[in-house]
Amino acid sequence: MEYKNLIAGSWTETTAASANINPSDTSDVLGYAADSPAEDMDRAISAAREAAAGWAASTPQQRFDVLDAIGTEILARKAELGHLLSREEGKTLAEGIGESARAGQIFKFFAGETLRQAGEMFASVRPGVGVEVTRSPMGVVGLITPWNFPIAIPAWKIAPALAYGNAVVLKPAELTPGCAYALGEIISRSGLPEGVFNMVFGQGSVIGKRLVESCDVDALSFTGSVQTGSAIAAACGAQRKKLQLEMGGKNPMVVLDDADLDIAVEASINGAFYSTGQRCTASSRLIVTADIHDRFVAALSDRMAGLRVGNALDETTQIGPVVDERQLKKDLSYLDIAGSEGGRILGGQALQRSTKGFYLAPALVTETTNGMRINQEEVFGPVASVIRVADYEEALMVANDSPFGLSAGICTKSLKYATDFKANVEAGMTMVNLPTAGVDYHVPFGGTKGSSLGAREQGSHAKEFYTKVKTAYTLA
């Protein structure tokens, strides 16, 4: 399989390509993705610029028909797309199918949003003057997406961009080109005019940089690392380009003495280890009050030991492989650091399976303090640490002692503490007796502090990023 660029409605080849490797079986090559030069990105941006005005003038019905067709095909093919996703990224088959279905639901939601767009009318403070507030497309929107949700995150950026009348240039993650290509093929058959959606594969340092720096791109949405996001923020700030960043988290799960132990363990297992912990909303810091600490650690350790790690395509697998060798080495290095700083490590060893892959046993690091690196830096693997605290007040203080603020959870039977936590934890999303990971597609997604910058993603709040506001005054 050759993953080609989609530029101005045509699939175009490049002379260089990179192999797409299955992390569950490194002998399995899914295909080869274009390793594009910067000039290919220039052509994609030009195509989007040329098509932008026509799509901005399209009717709500035209936009609905396109997005609805995309969502319908994704949902009809969710098993096939989920299999591809699991083979390419390493999620379990159930997770891959679930993510693919979510992508279809996102397109369906934003198909509906095309028919719900409205303006506002105000009476002026001046007699005889009317005030009208409307929204219009940004123009050309650049999208840079990560590998950990290789179909859902492109969907939740592409769908609102198109729904609100923008032309799009997508730069997918290098590690997961297959899902992006499959999505691009579906979009190319949806009836969308040529040039409205463009997709270019290649290295972030080459084509991603060109997308960020182009003066012909009106807005840019990025999901990825803090380091890359910070560099993008500096570049876009210099251009005064509209920007949306999602950059990760170090999410706390607080477990209070009165928590239902079974609920707390299951929420922590799900949040910390499912999707191989490769979620920006993963529960990486488990903050546990003293009276329940030992029982919680014992129950969590027993539950963790029973998790089945294996090939993502095996239906009995509960935890798939880490995405690639570099990520596996990073995870192991953080466990070494945690051990050197005094943490006690349960699990966390590299595993051998019948196929050669990047398998890692889930790891729990106990006897930690919040100042340790394992509790301040994002690991992005099946690794969670436990922090013992005295009471709720200390738990909240520790939860907020982080440069990140994406998602936070609390397990408690107390309405008082749950209410206080929702009000005072420094996070964009809060869960009560639920995993910190796992959000709905029709409500806002995003964080505070170092996790996010700009308008929220998903739901009707997405219009805040993908549109600009105009206020018009008329003398009657």
Automatic annotation (TrEMBL):
<dbReference type="InterPro" id="IPR016160">
    <property type="entry name" value="Ald_DH_CS_CYS"/>
</dbReference>
<dbReference type="InterPro" id="IPR016161">
    <property type="entry name" value="Ald_DH/histidinol_DH"/>
</dbReference>
<protein>
    <submittedName>
        <fullName>Aldehyde dehydrogenase</fullName>
        <ecNumber>1.2.1.-</ecNumber>
    </submittedName>
</protein>
<comment type="similarity">
    <text>Belongs to the aldehyde dehydrogenase family.</text>
</comment>
<dbReference type="GO" id="GO:0016620">
    <property type="term" value="F:oxidoreductase activity, acting on the aldehyde or oxo group of donors, NAD or NADP as acceptor"/>
</dbReference>
<dbReference type="Pfam" id="PF00171">
    <property type="entry name" value="Aldedh"/>
</dbReference>
<dbReference type="InterPro" id="IPR029510">
    <property type="entry name" value="Ald_DH_CS_GLU"/>
</dbReference>
<dbReference type="InterPro" id="IPR015590">
    <property type="entry name" value="Aldehyde_DH_dom"/>
</dbReference>
<feature type="active site">
    <location>
        <position position="246"/>
    </location>
</feature>
<dbReference type="InterPro" id="IPR016163">
    <property type="entry name" value="Ald_DH_C"/>
</dbReference>
<feature type="domain" description="Aldehyde dehydrogenase">
    <location>
        <begin position="13"/>
        <end position="471"/>
    </location>
</feature>
<keyword id="KW-0560">Oxidoreductase</keyword>
<dbReference type="InterPro" id="IPR016162">
    <property type="entry name" value="Ald_DH_N"/>
</dbReference>
